[in-house]
């Protein structure tokens, strides 16, 4: 492939990596990771609410990695409550998983920026054979993509397996019990998915630029080796 086309491909990959770093940083600071509704089970049972009356007992909840908001509905109107994970909810959430999600988000931002810098360096500079070269670009893209996948897996397990929404909904609730009525992942979670796919796409762009995947054997070297074996 001509050098000019390689520069264009590396520039596109660099811009995508930088955009992913900004997107991940923005996603960390929002409370748009999970949105859902919570049912005041105690209140609904007290009045034996029907399907139409249940709307008066269904509140809302949304949260991110650091803070969130819930609106409890127990038949007397919505009552909002702001909360933060640190230090308010630290005792009731799976803290190790939650901290790991934040840590991998930070690593994703760092390696996305590193990858963006190296892509631009390879586009406009003289690439080295190791860190700045194709092997390094594959490495940064692979690490960033892996971090994105780990973030989604860990956060999904925290929400679905450890019932994070119910734990938040029942935080500091003495006589009332809340149950998750519905929940779905919001924009910030899907931004992480898009970033993971972008870093995977970057690896394909490197291959499209004409550089072999790491640890892949060249057909020419295999042919030369076979010919050498025939000589002896």
TrEMBL record:
Gene name tied to this protein: Clrn1
Any one GO BP annotation for this protein: sensory perception of sound
InterPro entries, alphabetized: Clarin
Main localisation: membrane
Subcellular location: Membrane
Keyword entries, A-Z: Membrane, Transmembrane, Transmembrane helix
GO-annotated cellular components: membrane
Family listed: Belongs to the clarin family.
Name recorded for this polypeptide: CLRN1 protein
Parts of the chain that traverse the membrane: 97-123, 135-155, 189-209
Membrane topology category: Multi-pass membrane protein
The keyword Transmembrane appears for this protein: yes
